[in-house]
Amino acid sequence: MTTLNQQQRTEAIETMSTRKVDVLVIGGGVTGAGIALDAASRGLTTAIVEGQDWASGTSSRSSRLVHGGLRYLYNLDFKLVAEALRERGRLLSTIAPHLVEAQPFLWPLKTPVIERAYSAVGVGMYDALARIGSKGKATVPIQRHLSKAGALKRFPEIKHDALIGAIEFYDARVDDARLVITLIRTAVRHGALAASRVRVEEVLRDSHGRATGVRARDLETGDTFTVEAEHIINATGVWTEQTQDMAGGTGGLKVLASKGIHIVIPRERLKATTGMFLRTEKSVLFIIPWQHYWVIGTTDTAWHEQLTHPVPTAEDIDYVLAHANEVLAEPLTRDDIIGTYAGLRPLLQPKVLDESKSTKVSREHTVTEVVPGMVAIAGGKLTTYRVMAEDAVDFALGKPVAKARPSLTADLPLLGADGFHVVQNRAEDLGQRYGFSADRMRHLLSRYGSEVTDLLATIDEDPSLGKPLQAAPQFLRAEVHRACTSEGAIHLEDILIARVRLNSEARDRGAAAVDEVAEIAAKALGWDDARTEREKSNYLARVAAELAAEEQSTDAAASEARMQAPDIVS
């Protein structure tokens, strides 16, 4: 079993500080994780460092969708949509069928004949491009036209006057943070050195101005060390400019931060069996069903505050509620909300900082040279992370080397994908053996895939881990244990935000589960009583600050409220 844990992290830092690597990736979001896997699977010695927890930025705060971008067809951007749909098909069928699940959506129609006709053409083109990208194989069902009665049957909470019918089409959903963590673990399986909570403080350059490595700080110990690298790839999203500024020079990318927020409501609040897709004046609104809740969002507004902890304001929350309530017969209220979160999209600006530098522009993303030896990539979206990774590594290596060592990730399953369907077929038997319901087994399989047998093995060793968390019975104690021993969690907040995701999926943001989760983590990570209390106090302070931020009316006030809780590692 490939693990991310304290021993692996320590050994990775020791190795990367004493051995020159071919590729050093800065940034542990989905793009950086994809790059690390792409490089490592080519046989390149690879290291990846992340200043916070894995996926702590945009990649744990998205709409949790894998989609082709139906709205881009309005702009006739067929190539972009085709590329995204091809990647969606790969994720569904080969790369991560356990993590990525096909999801139906309703597109409500408000006028007869004309709207249905042009919408049908658009969705039909979407389906056709998906088939072409999958070489004729259907990875999701094709569009289905519904009458008003048919739409109301699928989504009974729609206002009767909000539609005259609907088109049902398919995209897919994914737990974004789990995808990133699985990418990192798969990269480690293929030889990558990976360490979170490592902050790059300086990009080192030789006498000719070429980037040769970095000086970094282990935020857990305070120790500094250097990493020598033949190639450095900056994949830090909204932090792109800050990272490339360390290298000096004139090259790089310009990126602006745009905030998107989501609200979470209980699954039982809506009886619908499908999601919904709506266009708004500023963005699009998705109502997305998950096993135990609904995610509704998003917004698209400029963010000019600190980048580490974006938060929704009261105005943001009211905006999402208002647009959802335009089509819901029984309006949602703040009392229905059990969670909120905000993420920052790195909006790539049209021009690179230095037009004389080598650059590759590929539809939504761009990779360019910062200084010799260092490149930066930004733009794109979660769905196309693999293409971005391939482009970044190809660009860094140069055409001759890239041609000799091509990317292998198009058909490379992530951990948990191999044998997934075999284990899925055994789900009923496994559930009976451990006393788990079908709902529980669906939950476990969608998180761990074929690796669910590893999780069950820990329950065999310690039956107490087979019990549900008292305050959050949708999760097993074994899942907390695994977060610490195999998924790279170092702190309590790492568990509750990106692994056992109570921070965004529980009304109290997981506060009621803190004692039990901390007790399991303390045993797994070797915390003493003082460390355990510090972890709990820090997380509860974070919760209080996040809840206070939601009551503020402006980004500045919300950001200030959130920053009242200090980071556990600064």
Structure notes:
With 570 residues, the protein is α+β, with helices and mostly antiparallel strands. The chain folds into three domains: 6-59 and 178-253 and 364-411, FAD/NAD(P)-binding domain, CATH 3.50.50; 71-172 and 256-347, D-Amino Acid Oxidase, subunit A, domain 2 (D-Amino Acid Oxidase, Chain A, domain 2, 2-Layer Sandwich); 462-564, no CATH class. The chain contains 20 helices and 19 strands. Strands 3, 4, 5, 6, 11, 12, 13, 14, 15 and 16 form a ten-stranded mixed β-sheet that branches. Strands 1, 2, 7, 8, 9, 10, 17, 18 and 19 form a nine-stranded mixed β-sheet that branches. A hairpin with a 2-residue loop joins strand 18 (365-371) and strand 19 (374-379).
Quick overview:
The protein is an alpha+beta fold and 570 residues long. The chain has helices at residues 6-16, 30-41, 78-95, 114-133, 148-154, 176-189, 240-245, 314-325, 385-397, 399-404, 420-425, 427-434, 438-448, 452-461, 477-485, 492-499, 502-505, 514-525, 529-549, 555-562; strands at 21-26, 46-49, 65-66, 100-109, 144-147, 165-174, 193-195, 198-205, 211-218, 224-234, 255-266, 275-279, 284-289, 293-297, 301-302, 339-348, 359-362, 365-371, 374-379. Strand 13 and strand 14 form a beta hairpin.
Number of strands: 19
Distance between the termini: 32 Å
Would you tell me the overall average pLDDT?
A: 93
CATH third-level topology of the largest domain: D-Amino Acid Oxidase, Chain A, domain 2
Domain Alpha-glycerophosphate oxidase C-terminal: 408-531
Domain FAD dependent oxidoreductase: 22-350
Cofactor: FAD
GO molecular function: glycerol-3-phosphate dehydrogenase (quinone) activity
